Amino acid sequence: MSFIATPQTMHFPQPLPLQSGASLRDYNLAFETYGSLNADASNAVLVCHALNASHHVAGVYAGQDKSEGWWDNMIGPGKPVDTDKFFVIGVNNLGSCFGSTGPMHLHPDTGEVYGADFPVVTVEDWVNAQARLLDRLGITQLAVVLGGSLGGMQALSWTLQYPERVRHAVVVASAPNLTAENIAFNEVARRAIVTDPDFHGGHFYRHGVIPKRGLRIARMIGHITYLSDDVMNEKFGRSLRAPTLPASRGSLPPEGAGPARGGPAPDLRDYLYSTQDIEFQIESYLRYQGDKFSEYFDANTYLLITRALDYFDPARGHGSDLTQALARATAKFLLVSFTTDWRFSPRRSREIVKALLDNRRHVSYAEIDAPHGHDAFLLDDPRYMNIMRSYFDSIAKELA
Amino acid sequence: MTEKTTMQAIARMVPPGSRVLDLGCGDGALLSYLQRERGCSGYGIEIDDANVLACVQRGVDVIQLNLDEGLAMFGDDSFDVVLQIDTLQHLRNAEVMLRETARVGRTGVVAFPNFAHWPNRLSVLRGRMPVTRRLPYQWYDTPNIRVGTYKDFEVLALKNQLRVIDAFGLQDGRTVRWCPNARAGTAVFHFEHA
Description:
The structure holds two protein chains of two kinds. Chain A is an alpha/beta fold. Chain A has helices at 123-137, 150-161, 180-194, 212-226, 229-235, 281-296, 299-311, 322-325, 346-358, 382-399, and strands spanning 8-12, 16-17, 23-24, 27-34, 44-48, 75-76, 81-82, 87-91, 142-148, 166-172, 332-338, 363-368. In chain A, the strands form three sheets. Chain A has an eight-stranded mixed beta sheet, sandwiched between helices. In chain A, strands 2-3 form a two-stranded antiparallel ribbon. In chain A, strands 6-7 form a two-stranded parallel sheet. The model of chain A is unreliable at 244-260 (pLDDT under 50). Chain B is α/β, with parallel strands linked by helices. Chain B has helices at 4-11, 29-38, 49-58, 94-104, 118-125, 150-159, 180-183, and strands at 19-23, 41-46, 62-64, 79-85, 105-113, 162-171, 174-176, 186-193. The model of chain B has no long low-confidence stretch (mean pLDDT 94). Classes of the chains: A alpha/beta, B alpha/beta.
């Protein structure tokens, strides 16, 4: 049982200029904090979230079963990021659907729901908004900015936009930009949503419908890319549809728990010989994941966040020279990648490492040979956890 | 090889304040010593998970890499000193890595077990591969896949146009300068590219 987390909201009345040239006239940010800020405000850790997560990073909500934050295994009292030592802040990004101002909220100029009119936001815009939150919390410099995947991009961007405000950056399973293949996956997901007849050009709220079909497919394709072939095979193999639905994401069997490569024992039941019914268990699992996701995630948010991923490219203004782009960063870095992560492969993390080495920055890099693909960054591999714990312990010692 | 006297013998070849790259840095003890005692900076390269963790615990910057994949991540002459302490004998591409060491560092220091040390010769004369304190492995489980001698390295250095600044043997924590090929269990070469 984890500790009780309490979500908060802060209103920002001053407009936020966006990278696109547009601006948000005023906005709310939903956030949570854990632990206490020390006297000289030097122990703050900002956690940046990835695609479908939120400010609810750790702890549980009072009276709600199974409400653990998305990184509850990493953050909390006595955990690798120890909230007995650090003041940890989780913040929901603009355009999201978990409390911060997003496409389902009212446009202050029109009084109508934003919908598709919510401005395109970038990683840099999010970082600017997060910086304002820190201003209001009385934090001038972060001990650590931490994030995985898209969250890692924000952490990296922090070190470039506000180098003097970051002492350490921990960038997990991330990349200096998306490859064409990665943008392609995002585009498939977006097309699934946009071509859903219930999407209505992004103004589906007015019609009282939700483009759930599109969201389901977007989630299915995303989910495939977060796992590795081996892990999927180990869990599902060629098993036929199960009478009961498989467990949710995050409960994949631990390494070595199931039968070796080749997956579960062959299922010799007869095929249904149907093209549309669920035949294989993997189909059932993906449909279940898609259904669950479409119940809580906003379609416009999905478009906005995948676009923010696509646009992120700090080297772009430097002739694609990442070394030159990262010259501004003064933070000390820890990078972690996972060998079976093909969506944010180790090669991409190494590009960041190389650019930091070129600039003679402090950097450590761990490449964890975990089987779980991109999802590994949310799971409990002990090598990963130990590296994180040790790195944060050494930072905690600097504070004392 | 991590005994203190050995570490000091290696450290003497690293000028104070140097930027150091330590290939196969183990638990980071040498780098930590160089940072603490000689004001050096730099990185360790390690493949082993436990060693990477040990480096992070010591506060030594470490990059987890397989050295057999090369040093493409590092620019020419980007370090004052590149160390290869008890690493060479584990590498499949030992010669390529030697060249890479010379490319990336203005100077290089290589130390490795000298198979021509007299107890080793004696053992081979008796018909058996040596098993000693320095080489504690059996022939079938040794990680030392490159079996070379002090003299062999002189030849390899010449072939790769390395200029040897200094070379000596190490035995029981002492420097061996007279007949090191027979009298020292460890060969040490300090070189630069010509």
